[in-house]
Amino acid sequence: MKPSNREEPPAAENSRATKRKHSLKSKQFDRRNKHAKRQRLTVSETLTISETETQTTFTLKPDPSRNPPTSNRFEPIRSSRKRNKTRKRRKSSATDECHRQWTFSSRDYSNFKDKFVVVSYNILGVENALKHPDLYMDVPPEFLEWERRKRLIREEIKRYNASILCFQAVFCSFPQEVDRFDDLDYLLRKDGFKGVYKARTGDARDGCAIFWKDKLFTLLHQENVEFQKFGLRHNVAQFCVLKVCRVLIWYHMKQNLPEPEICEQTSVTTLSRSQSLVVGNTHVLFNPNRGDIKLGQVRLYLEKAYKLSQEWGKIPVLLAGDLNSSPQSAIYQFLASSELDVQQHDRRYMSRQVEFSSNCRDFKFQNGCRNRGWMSISKPLIYGWSDEELRLATGSKQVTQLQHQLKLHSAYFGIPGSHKTRDNNGEPLATSYHSKFMGTVDYIWHTEELLPVRVLETLPIDILKGSAGLPCESWGSDHLALVCELAFVNNGDQT
């Protein structure tokens, strides 16, 4: 077709077409403008939320639909950066100190001037970590290194402003290596502590250690029990009789001040008479099937504590340790109630560790079994014990009814806590966590001459389950320290 033969549109048609084109553009521009206004309105409204809810990031998200409702055009979504950080925190982290909170007694202790903080802590023996890698499969190797862990343990103890420390699984010297107790002793002396150590008998290299603040307590007496002498394996217990120093600073040195300034700026009590107490520390046999040996060790532990208390003027008793028994166990019942009929219990389940360790990753299993231990305690069923098992458990093959003379109270039971960290008995849900176990085996017990002022809650179960196990980035052991502040009853009237 030749160009000269092409028909040109009339001028009027050109004008109408141009107007239609401009009108269409104008309408599209108006729609975009209105849409933009809605965007600005919605974003400005969400900015107020994001300022207060810092964990949520509001991001503009295109919607494929042509005319979606305004309320659905912008959805709150988590930024990938924050999501990654959250994953890392969950992986690392039974960790943040903010997850361990103090819980206080409902009683007013303002007039009780003689208070002290005690810590019971299984610090994970070096040899245990090396010999049982199956317990720490998901734990990065650097988290198991002693040099790193001892630094974390020391920093943790400083945060608690502790007065008395009861450590379990403290390893003594290896050939050509630094003695672990000397290692800890050196560091803790810098922080004002003195300590004593008792190693296990036999080939094992770990033991127990008690430390106390030198300015607050004086060691009057030290004594140990070697269970092997009674045919009860190579575990040990240690005891210290501590006397409160003449001047006790009421919840001491909350500010890091020189001693003269402390006396001027904090409450100080000059004791009218001497305050002393028995401090016991032990690490009971692990073997879940040997309830007879476990019970025998606990029995001797309590007997020695009572004897020392009587010898030193019926003074208060404080007992700490890793008892390798759950709060649902017969051993726990013996401590709490002062009596036990051993024939109502199978020695293989005296500590209730088996049912708790068999499915540690699913903590609902443990919660479901919370009351079963106590239910089995009241069963009339009679179990058969051999003469040798009775002798180990009770001290005589003729004895089936056990009693002890200490009226003991659990420090954590004495101060009710949250369901997130406590079981139905009032004890922590978990004081230990590794690849094959999550549960409670550590305790602080005291006689009625001492009262719990506050306790430090353990980590919530969801935090523990979100981690790879203990130790981790912020905690230096596969156990969590139990921490309690106690007050002497007999000076509550002092002002």
From TrEMBL:
Q: Which domain of life is it from?
A: Eukaryota
What is the protein name given in its UniProt record?
Uncharacterized protein
Taxonomic source organism: Pistacia integerrima
